[in-house]
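Example 551, ligand zinc ion.
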Amino acid sequence: MSSAAPDRSVALVGGHVYAGAGVTRPGGVAVRAGLIVAVGSDDEVLAASGSAAEVIQLAGGLVSPSFGDAHLHPVNAGVELGQCDLHDARSAAECFDRVAAYAAEHPDDEWILGAGWSVEHFPGGMPSRVDLDRIVPDRPVLLHNRDHHGAWVNSRALAAAAITRATPDPADGRIERDASGEPTGTLQEGAVRLVRAVAPTPSRRALQEGLLRAQSRCFELGITNWQDALLRQHSPGIDGLTPYLDALDAGTLVAKVNGAIWWDRNRGPEQLEEILAAADRVGAGRTRFRATAVKIMVDGIVENFTASLSKPYRDASGRETDNFGISFLERDDLIEAVELIDRHGLQVHFHALGDRAVATALDAVENARRANPAGAARHQLDHLQMVQPEDVRRFRVVRAVANIQPLWACIDDQMTAMTIPFIDPSLVDRHYPFADLEAAGATLAAGSDWPVSSLNPFDGMHVAVNRTPVGVGAEPFLPHQRLRLATVWDAYTAGVAYVNGRDDEFGNLAPGMAADLVVVDRNPFELADSEIASARVVSTWVDGRPVYEHD
Ligand SMILES: [Zn+2]
């Protein structure tokens, strides 16, 4: 299609343009020197781009601001794509086969590392070391599950980490055990760290390759900007910034990335100095990479009973327990940390999943706004699996962005087997209240949490609009919480630009904005709601240059 130099003119004509708020018009976009110079009818676009412009036919498709992703883990995702990849496995048996095949293909690897198994494929969400021992008896195996809040290990890995029946659970996690107290091979949350600490870490080069693999995958799906939701030390000497800084040096980072630096919940406010130094190391004004946020995990997830809830979990027979989940930080410590981070102008990116975690995170933002009324940091709460009505209203009041992972808002096997039976029925009704948040004036940004779930924005849009899984005719989950396509489209474009503080650079089609574009093969706004996920990306553009073209 085009190998245009950055100063060349391009006219994209013969389709529809996305004008925001769900409005599409016939026409196209004119691009010069990497910027949008006109948005309008074909005649207007051709006039604005000049006679020397390269003309690209949209063939009835839609040109939109390219997508962003407000929460993903691209480096890990890219590395995992090169390891024992279980993401597509549809059963425990398929997992066993893949591990066996991978082990056979990698006879010299000292460890078998991988990720992507689903909790719903194993009884109680807990696979057994015995199965892995049968397949790989001679080497340690460490396989993260799809949501990365737990892992499956074999006996060799337990031995390498010196985990025995005598090993106590860490404060922030759990070693699953059988009736006799023997570890079974499933580790939850902080317990995974015990094995990860002795497993080999990816080399600097592997991280670099992982990032570039992820970047290509993003471009294929029309995503050109994102927030890396967790910049954390990979290994001694290699921190979360390293892959990005290496790619900047090599000139291979083309996407526009903001990053969230990990807040170590086992340390105190003194770590802010290091975070500020890291943000400084990146520098403030770079286009391709900025470290502008601090990631704080307020709680865990429902499936392993670590999401922080207002009502106690139930056991397998439906009886109330005394477990309300985990708050990773003491409330006062959280409030102090957020006030401090806010005072330094950085965004707090909260993992806040249970309703009690959401309330506490909003309390912390409210306190920071009171303590620092002039503060402009765009704090965001992510996941928002359950939100109480009184908290829905507070997003707008305290100016917190609701960062939603739309793909999760449906009844799938995981919801049926791992969530609904174990929580109070009143909490089921408070699940993913996207329409309530919109009605209350919350700013929405959307993200995938890839590799936890599909990176494809059309999949997320499908669920947000239908509240059913992609490709499956099912009962919609709380259908009154459906969003219009326009709302979720804007959350994937302008919303992500806003939460990253970059809404003056991209996320809208307007003259002067970067020509970061996605061309879609049809106009999704003219499709039935059930057909949204059938849309395909034709090409993706960054600064007026194609970075992906479907052939
Ligand atoms: Zn995440």
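Summary: The mean pLDDT is 95.
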